[in-house]
Amino acid sequence: MRKLHEATGGKPQRWESLGNLGALASDAAGIAYAVERDWLIISGGFHSLSLTEDGRRRVKQPPRRGNTSAAKPARGYAKPRPSRTPGT
Questions:
Q1: Most CB atoms closer than 10 Å: which of 24, 32, 41, 63?
Q2: Predicted TM-score (pTM) above 0.85
Q3: For 51-61, how does the pLDDT look when each residue is reduced to its tens digit (9 = 90+)?
């Protein structure tokens, strides 16, 4: 999607051929995924692609980094345990 956005200048209703984008057979799953979510429109028997408004918005968003639901890092250090040695 990013290649398509760059090739079309991010302008709406601009079409680009798969060949001009350098798309490979390995890109097919990603393209199908984007079409299912209405981020891309395919025309001409899988020849040309265009980003939908949702697709253009998605490309403009900054990429997510890591797992946002991961545990927060610990703050500071644990308190030292009292000595258990008798008579000290």
A1: 41
A2: no
A3: 999 999 998 87
Whether residue 75 is contained in a domain is answered as no
18 CB-near residues (< 8 Å, 6+ apart): 46, 47, 48, 49
Domain limits for position 17: 2-60
pLDDT in tens, 25-79: 788 888 889 999 999 999 877 788 999 999 999 988 776 666 555 555 555 566 6
State both tokens at 68: 């946002």
Please count the structural domains in the chain. Answer: 1
Q: Cα 40 vs. chain centroid, distance in angstroms?
A: 14
Residues in the chain: 88
Q: Is residue 78 part of a domain?
A: no
Q: Which 3-state string (H, E, C) describes the chain?
A: CHHHHHHCCCCCCCCEEHHHHCCCHHHHHHHHHHHHCCCEEEECCCCEEEECHHHHHHHHCCCCCCCCCCCCCCCCCCCCCCCCCCCC
